[in-house]
Predict the structure.
Amino acid sequence: MLATPPATAAGPVILKVAIVQQIDSLNPFLAVFQSSTEIGRLMYDSLTAYAADDQRVTEGIANRWEPSADKLTWTFTVPDGKKWSDGQPITAQDVAFTYNLMLTNEVARTANGGFVANFSSVTAPDDRTVVIRTKAPQVTMLALDIPVVPKHVWEKVTDLKNYANDQMPVVGSGPFVLTEHVPGQFIKLKANKNYWRGAPKYDELHFVYFQNSDAAVQALAKGEVDLVNRMAPAQFDSLAGKDGVTRNKAQGRRFTELLINPGAQTRTGEPIGNGNPALKDVRVRRAIAQAVDLDALVQRVSLGYAEKGSGLVPPVFGKWHWEPDAQQLHRFDPAAANAALDAAGYPRKDGTRFTLRLIGRAGRAYDEQASEYLKRSMSDVGIVLDVQLVSDNQLNEMTTVATYDLAFSGWATNVDPDFILGLHTCAQRPGPDGKGGTTDAYFCDETYDQLYARQLSEFDEAKRVEIVKQMQARFYDQVPAVVLAYENALEGYRSDHFAHFTTQPAQGGVIMAQNGVWGYYLAEPAARAEQPSRGWYGLGAFAAALGSMVVAIVVATRRRKATAGERE
């Protein structure tokens, strides 16, 4: 059967993207899932952006910037002529309003508060100028991945915590405008004709929910959707040679990790959650790391479509990536792990030391397969795993309130490593009420925090690189999580519907889950004259969408951390 094109001959050209991860919020101040921040980037520009070809800093809302000699004051210029999707001008007042809302409202800091923690003041002396003063020099001032919102819309919002941002069409500055959202079914956006870079080359962008990646890949094969990512290796291999389908294998910017609850606490030191007390002992956490054969996971679970994990920054970001030396390495050694657990005071009783709960996302192939492997590995050192595979929202809730022992998680990282590193500072833990935190692993370590402060103010790149590597080494040594792998991004698209997608970076880059919008914005549809008629999603995809409660774009978990380093 011939695949159907992206639209009817006389109708709009639509790019249909399969997703299988839930949307947690369309409010950019609250959105923490990767799927949500992906949509947010399409709706709202940030102050600066990353270029498609080489990820250098380029124009966003601002087109010029200059620091003072002491690096404590940054002046950004917002050029005349840029407009919101409703035709109102984009000004420096919008930027100042967004940042000041985050400085004065704790709720507004939920998703991206770490970016402004060092800010002293933000002013807009006129409509073209934004002046940001910091408490200490901040090297990440051109990496503020904060969606800028329209002041004339958001200044009317009185209850930010409960604001859904669903007054359609939603006013934005990005290349697409949100027009419709039916949870569990679809998200629809239309091309922003006022976009300052120029309107996209097609009319509408639809994200279609599927219950799992198998259903999404089947829909791609049938031509019912046009773009799929985060495929399992076997799914990716199954599309080799498929007519009308082009595959893209990229070195991913994300990592998959195994969280180990180190004794979660709030910022004020109050215990939170119900992690196994044994995991407070770093000797136990190191033994768990020694019991995991990372090479075997790469080969047996990822089928070679990944690199073995080590530091928090993936190899794709070259200079920032860290690898342990022979003395630092948690080498796979079950015998040593058993000896360490004995020495830590956890002898076997009837062959078992203790039981740990391992949570992951239901329907995600990696979590399902890796959990079975880990059950066998942990049993070799006397640890019984109780595997619980749950929904995205359940996983997010359990890791947020620390009701886990072990958990699968994952992050997409930014070009600048600050955000992913900042997730592990003591300040990112939740407040006294157990809310408001953006921590990844409930890690709190004085040495790590001191290094983080140093790298944030270090403008000598070589010196900063060395500090960033020291931080990763410290995290690795204390083991609040084991970075399991850096997975390849496995994507596929209907090249008979869309002739070209821009990757980031240009060589070996990704189409989806970029540090920007280029994959969607610059997509080039096949000639309309070549497009026969097709229905909206195709019956198979539509049925799957109606029955689904999950969405995709990256791994399961909360991004409770941020746009720059999205949780997957």
Summary: Confidence is low (pLDDT under 50) at residues 1-5, 529-565. The first strand starts at residue 14 and ends at 19.
